[in-house]
Structures are given as structure tokens and as C-alpha cells.
Amino acid sequence: MASISGTNVGAHGHDHAHHDEPYLTPKSSLWATIIDWATTIDHKKIGVMYLVAVLFMFFLGGVAALAVRVELLEPTRTVTTTVNGETTVQITGSVMHSVGMATDMASAGDWYNKIFTLHGLIMVFLVIVPSIPASLGNFLMPLMLGAKDVAFPKLNLASWYIYLFGSFFAIASAVVGGVDTGWTFYTPYSTITDAGHWKVVFMILAAFILGFSSILTGLNFIVTVHKLRAPGMGWFDMPLFVWGMYGTSLIQVLATPVIGITLLLLIFERLFHIGIFDPRMGGDPVLFQHFFWFYSHPVVYVMILPGMAIMSELIAVFCRKKVFGYRAVAFSSLAIAAIAFVVWGHHLFTSQGEVAAAVFSALTFLVALPSAVKVFNWVATLYKGSIDLKTPMWYALGFLFLFSIGGLTGLFLGALSVDLHLHDTYFVVAHFHYVMMGGTIIAFIGGIHMWWPKMFGKMYNEFWGQTGFWLVFIGFNLTFFPQFIMGVHGMPRRYASYVDEFLIYHQLSTVGSWVLLLGFLVHFFNFVHSLAAGPKAPPNPWGALTLEWTDAASPPITHNFHHEPVVTHGPYDYDDVVPAQTKPGEFPLPPKAEGRTVHVVKAGH
Amino acid sequence: MGGSFGNDSIRARKQFSTEAQAMNTLALDSWLRDIWLKPGNSNLAPSVDGLFMFILWVCIISFIILMVPMCWWAFKYRRRPGHVQMRTPNHNTFLEITWVAVPLVIVTIIFFWGFHGYMHGQIASSQAEIINVEGKKWNWTVTYANGAGSGEQVYLDAKRIDENTVSHAYQAVPIIVVPEGRPVKFMLTSSDVIHSFYIPDMRIKMDVFPNRKTSLTFTPTNADAALDQAGSLYTSAADAKAAATGKGRDHFIFCAEYCGTFHSEMAAILRVLPEDEYNATLTEWANIEGKYGFNGEKDKAGQQLLPMWQLGQWVHKAQGCATCHSVDGSKGSGPSWKGYYGTEVNFAGGGKVAVGLYPGLRDIESTWDNYIRESILEPAKHIHEGYPNQMPTYAGKMSERQINGVIAYMRYLAGKTDNIPTGGPKPAAGSSEAKPEAKN
Question: What ipTM is given for this predicted complex?
């Protein structure tokens, strides 16, 4: 088997000098550089711009979350003091109450409601949905496939500007006063609240516009996977990251139009009172819930599949093993994408008929199976590997820990009788934070660490990376685990205040949120330090076998590869192929076996 | 150890250790139960709690199956000088089928168990006591078959901090009584947005819609207040009364579907009473209006009725006015009633309650009485400037007598004494409101 890839095979004719420079090379002037980035159709630059935007939005949504936690540090109580017949009434335990008084709001509740709504909207529509596909996906997919760019580079730039445009409406809505609908926009509350004010329409419009960004990115990725695989790369030679992106893109393209239509109907309902969701006009508010979750449940998998996609890469690279049951993992991505479309009703167990509830409960349990397959396969991949406990691998282990809890607690919610008790309590809040944050965001941060050297050509500091991981991991569990318990004890979600029996859990949770903040700050300064003064990264610091490591420089050149790569080995063939060592002793050879040849792949050029 | 009874001894020890293990497992189970589950108090609770514990064990065992190898392998196969990865099979059909098939069996069990328990909360017995509940921003109104509404309110989590200071969570909330050991069926509807009727201790909730009726059913158990964990729920005077008589046990009712400004304050108390107490309470609540009267009104026995303003005080809580209108001057989403009556009020969009505009032509009383009446029946017609237009109409929900009571109460809170019978309590505006304990 010939094994050297990235040599002069299949040489390409585009050897313009400036395309051989790293894509990050600045132009002659600052202005020219800005113009270059603003008009770029380079998937790498677009990916980096998304990364910066998503992380900024994560910061905004995180501030909102911290504000929510601070408000919940103590329950709001009315303290009445009577001295000599004089009665004074005081509200204690509410930060928002003071803010509300200062801004002449009727209630502390109004502020609280706006802030948790802002947290939800930002985190869902501006952070998690675009996070991994738009940033790492954009950057990595063409590199992993050995392509020069995505299939439609200009469409890719359009997606980015649509994302900015949608974000503008979301921020504008928040700036002119914020909305208190909850991120789910349930009718008839969302059609009545702040009637006559444009801010709610702005926010719905933002979600509507952002949907188009998702659809176009998804479309682009699907075509890229079908058409731009390097010579020699069959479907089952693709890295599992690409499989995950492919599943994600299918859901985005199929489900997002539904939310688009739903949100338009909601806007019409607010502005023109068409009465499709309004019970006073014969409409049905539950219809909105069906429409909404028909999109928003599949989108849960838009959020988690990319996290799973990163996981498969992290585990394989840092264990130097082929992912156990590669095909099962690949197909489980598609199975999850397919089942995702038929389980939306489990958000409505308390609002739909018995037959529907039974059907959706049964279908919901089916999702447990492909998810279980993935988790078991990842753990099995560790067996007899050579496990490098660097920051990305710690994040992979953290993902397995947290996502297992998130996934397993889904069993409680899928069971009908138990869900009647737990629905809309903090148990649900904890469950989806374990999946969305403990899954997607944890994988995202792990992925950023892994591909950081590739994206920016600099190494990060390993000590501070791991310190950050432990703070995030401990802070996360401290924040969210107590929420499971208080949820089972009956604490409803979206409450600005609570009765005293939940006090201890809320206090643990709030302290946890501060530890979490500290962890993210450590990561932030570690990245800033790396950009400013980090050591230069070698082309393949982890000894990975996918094309972005073996055939591209760190950072990659504008055209990605000097020559179109030819794929001669699978992405995880660590038993047969060894990348060239970047440091002596860094990548031990696989054990010698009878009749086996070990192939060496050169890294970078 | 003697050979002759060695075998017996070993067997005995084996048996003992198995028993000890079983005991340990049970102890662990009940320890977990104590952490996770508050005592359930309905016929639904055993099924829900049983399934909850089953799933909890499934989770714990699965988590251990995943985490122990993960941690062990991550340590054992960590990269270090001289260690390289070893060639292992890339997949194993038997293993992979196992970890699909075993979860499939488990989730099938969970599904049927959950469905079975769920149907118990959906299908009511034909003998069930039907109780109508209406949710509106932001309170629950209950109507019993005999026409009675809730006649008693409590502050949640009321606590006396010292001699002069009391503290409580939320506004006063209504008490909903249910009979012990008899199935009840709550018929739920909403007059504005979606709410959700949630009773954690009964392990059930159901969404409440503006365009349809939904229902939930359960049989309350454990009316014995002595069973209650002291101090775990309430320390209000109402609970003290229940504790003293040994009758009645209180549970929280929350709104679980987000409904706006005071979503977290949309609570109520479910009080489980023995059958006879339940019936007596309903009779008392049904006749509540007849207990109050204007100056000089007497009951059949010739006794002076309780003052009319006290009916207003009752309505203020029972109809949920208290959610938005305080009586101590503190700001809510509606104007406080303290000292409100007879003041000059500007309307949003111009106009005002014309007080003193044409002295002698129109007196304060008829102007204000009419403004209050209009605000109850057609709240959107004239909005007090600076307050949101969000009050639902009470037309058909409040009798004329109750409206008169509200007017008398607002007069009372403004220090006007003409509805107070001679010898009745002198108004000391708001002071009796300040102490939740004093009300009961």
C-alpha cells in the first residue's frame, strides 16, 4: 500500500505567491486588512470571525446567567416591622428589586424575566446553534476533506453577514428594553406582552433571520461533503467530525424553515391579529408549541451532534486509536438526526392528549439508543490506547462524565408519570444544561484547545489550560447538580423568587456559577497570552492523521494545501500509520507485528 | 473452627453476609430516597416514586459502568515513556449489540411503567369530587360544587423573626381544601395566558389553557398534620392551627408555566382535610357573604353582622386582588389601596377621577364608588396613569355584595369610618395587615 500523502501527486495549477502565505498574514495596511477580512470568502477567515462573534455572545449570555444566579442567591421576602404602632414594609433578598425601583418598574420580576429570556435567546440562537458548525466546522471541514474551500464560498460569506444582521436585531431588541417572553415565545403570552412595542417583534425577527444563516451554512456543508472530498476519500474514510457536521446540516436544512414560518406567523399574530394562535379568535396556543418544538427539538441535536463530532476527534487523536465501531458512530449520527424529527411532543406531556403523550414517550426513548452507542464506543476507544492527558483530552473525559449525566437524566423526563412531576422544574433546567453546556460547550472548548495551534499557529499554555478545565468542571457540577435535587423537590423554573426550603441548593448553584466564571477567565487569558506570546506551533503537534494536520501548515496557507492531497489511509489508522515525529519521542511507534508495515506520513510543508 | 459444623457456619456466614448486603442496599436505597424525594401524599406518589428510584438506580449503575473503565483506562494507558497503544479490534459485534439491546429492554420497562402511572393521573374515578380552578395572572381561584370559593389565605413561609418583625415570601395565597382518601378531580382553565397547576407533593401537574379545560386527578392521603415534618413547610399561624387541632396538612401549589411578572408568586396552598372537616369547611366558605353586613344589618337571630369592610378584606385575598394591590402602601403592579380611596387619580390618555372639580355638584363618594365598580367590571376603561393595562375583568366572578365589600374595605383603608358599626374595631390603617399571624 502506497502511503505517502501530500506529495506532488495531483499537482494543482494555482500557485500564486500570496496564496502560499499563512491565511493570517496581514495586508499592507490596517485598512486593507480590515477590508480583506470583511470581504473574504476564505472559509478559515469566516470561521475565525464566527469564533470571535460566538465567544463574544457567549460572554454576553454568560453575564445574563450570572445576573440570574445572583438574583437567586436569596429568596425575595417581605419583611414587616412594627415599632410603636409604626409599620414599615421592606423587600429583602432581591437585587433586581433595587434595580426595578431605580428604573421605576412595577416589579423585580420584570427585570428578572427579561434577563433570563436574554440569556436563553443569546445562548440558543446566537451561541450554541452556530457555535461549532459555523466556527470550527467552517474552518475544519474543507481542510479535513482536502478541499480548497467550502462548495459555495460566497454563500458562506452571506451566511456570516446574515448572522451579523440577525444579531443586530437581537441586540437592538435588548437595548430598547428587552423582552420577557422566554426564549420559547409561548403564545398567547408572547402575543400579548408589551403590546404595541416593536422590541418583541425585533427579537422574533432576529431568530427568523438567524435561521437563514443556519440553513445556508447547512446547505453549503452538505454539498461540500458530497462534492469536495479529496481523491481517495470514500464516505467511510471521512473523519467522524465531518459525519457529525453532515448530520447537523441535514437537520438545519430540513427543520429551520419550520421555525421560520412559525416565527413569521407569530409576527403576523402580534401585528395584524390574524388569530392563528389566539384563543380569543379561535386560534390554538398549543399549535404554536407544536410548531415551535417541531423545529426546536431537532435543533437540540443541531446543538449536540457537533459536540459529539468533536468528541470523536478528540478521543481518537489523544488516545491514538481508531474510534471503536466507526460505522456505528457514523450511523448513530444519522439515526439521531432522523429520530430528532419525531420526538418534539415530549415537550408537551402536560399539554397534549394521552395517546399523543404515549406515542411521543415511546419514540423519545429510541433516542437513548444511538446516544448510548456513541458513549459506549468512545469509552471503548480508550482501551489499550496511548492516552495523552492534555487539555483537550481532559475536556473529552469531562464531556463523557457530564454528557452521561445529561443523557441518563433524560430517562426520568421521558417517563410519562415522572415527567408530570418534573416538567418545567429545575430538574429540566439541570438536564438540558448538562447536555447543552456539559456536552456541546465542553466539547467546543476542548475543540478550540485542540485546533488552536492549527487556527492561530501558536501553542497555548498547558498548565493554565488544565487549570481552566478543572475550574470549569468543578464549577459546572456545583452550579447544576443541586438543580436536579431542587427540581425533584418541586422548584419550578423561571422563578424570580422561591420558598425557603430551596435556599441551600440555590446558594450552592450561585457559588458554582462564580467558579465557572473563574474557569472561563483563566481560559480567556490563556488564549490572549498564547496569541501575544505563545510558542510557535508545529504543523502537527498532536500527531493526528486527518488531513488538516498531516497536509496543512499551522496556520494553513490561504489555499489550504500546496497540492491537492490524496488520501491513502483512514483518519484513525494509528495502528498502521504514524505521522512524522515533530519532536523526538513524541509519538511512539505502534508495536511491531508479523507481516505489517508501518507507514509514515510527513507533516506540513 | 471445628470441622463438624464448619460448613454450617460458612453457610450461615454466607447467608448473613447476603442479608447484610441486602440490608445495606436497602439502607442505601432509603438514603437516596431521602435525598431525592420529599414524602409523597397522593395515590400517584408510590408509582411515580417507585419508577423514579428505579431510573435512579439504572442511572447510577450505568454511570459506574461508564466511568470506572474510563477513569481506569485513562490512568492505565496514559502516555508515558515506553508505553504505546496496542492493536485491538476496531469493533465487536456482540458487544455493540449488547449495548443496544440491554438499554432497549430497560427503556421499554421504563416506558410502560411511566405510561401506567401517567394514566392514573389522567382518568378520574366517577366518584371523584370535582373542583374547578381558574388561573389568571397571577393567582388561582377555586370554585367548589356548592358554589364556595376559598375562604382562607396564608402567607407562604411566614416567619416571626423577633417581637417586632415578621417576614414572608410572596403575597397572601388562597387555601384549597381537599378531602383525605377521596379522589378529587381538578378542572382547570385560564382567563388569560397559559399557566400550569403543579402540586409537587402530589407528584402531578397539568397545563392550564385559555381555550379549553384540562384536568388532573388524584386521591390525597395523609391528612394527619402530626405526620408533617415540623418546620419543613410553613410556620404560619394557619399551620399552627392545623398542627394544634391535628387536622389538615398543607402542600404547595405552584404555577409551573411561565406567565410573566409575578409568575413566581402565583402560588396556593393545598390543604388535605379529613372528610368531616372538609365538608364543614365548604359549608362555612359557601356562606361567607352572609356573615357580613352594613351598619344595622342583622342576621336571623338578630345579631349584628360582621362589618362590611371585612367582607372586602376577605374578597381582597380570595379573589386575588392582593396579588397586585397591596394594602400597606407598597408598590405593586396595581395601585396600593392604602389611602387610595378619595384621592385624585389621573387616567392614562387624559381625564381623571373628578374629585373636587365641582364641589357640591358631585360628591367624592359616588364618584369613587362608581370608579371602583367600573374598575372591577371593566378594568380597561380607565387606567390609572403609570400602571399597566393588565387587570382582567371580574364581571360575573364577583357579586354586587362583594363589590360593596371592596368599596367598604377601600374606604376603611382610607380612614373613612362610616361603614364601621358602633363598637366595631377602629381603623388603624394597614396595621392588622402587617402581621400575617393576626389574620387567622
Answer: 0.91
